[in-house]
Design brief:
The chain is α+β, with helices and mostly antiparallel strands. It has a domain of 53 residues: Phosphorylase Kinase, domain 1 (2-Layer Sandwich). It is 30% helix and 30% strand. The protein has 2 helices and 3 strands; from the N terminus they run H-E-E-E-H. It has a 3-stranded antiparallel beta sheet. A hairpin with a 5-residue loop joins strand 2 and strand 3. Helix 1 packs parallel to helix 2. The radius of gyration is 14 Å and the shape is globular. The chain binds adenosine-5'-triphosphate. The site of adenosine-5'-triphosphate has 9 residues, from strand 1 and strand 3.
């Protein structure tokens, strides 16, 4: 997997994400699986909410990203730093 993306079109980032999920580089969770949503902050890429996953008592930070090319590129390139 390349360690940086630089696509021309915003949709290319969506396609890259969908392929990464299909190839099982990333886990996929349905939004409906998250319960007890509470806002906890926001950053340059979007909002962050505290959630429970399914019926667990564990808390997770769920990041909701703005759907634009600059955000998608930033998020994906940040994720690639950890792969
Ligand atoms: N894992 C987490 N646990 C608890 N709170 C979190 C977590 N991740 C983010 N937050 C909260 O959400 C805010 C925004 O986080 P986010 O990572 O989106 O942006 P940032 O790193 O603070 O800023 P930027 O996006 O500008 O670099 C944080 O400042 C923090 O208050």
């Amino acid at each position: 997997m390349s360690n940086e993306t630089n696509f021309k079109d915003s949709n290319d980032y969506i396609v890259w994400l969908e392929k990464s999920i299909a190839d099982e580089y990333f886990n996929y969770y349905e939004y409906l699986e998250f319960k007890n949503l509470n806002p906890i902050g926001s950053g340059s890429y979007g909002n962050v909410i505290r959630v429970n996953w399914k019926n667990t008592d564990n808390f997770f930070a769920l990041k909701i990203f703005n759907n634009d090319k600059i955000t998608l590129k930033g998020v994906i390139n940040e994720v690639l730093l950890y792969i």
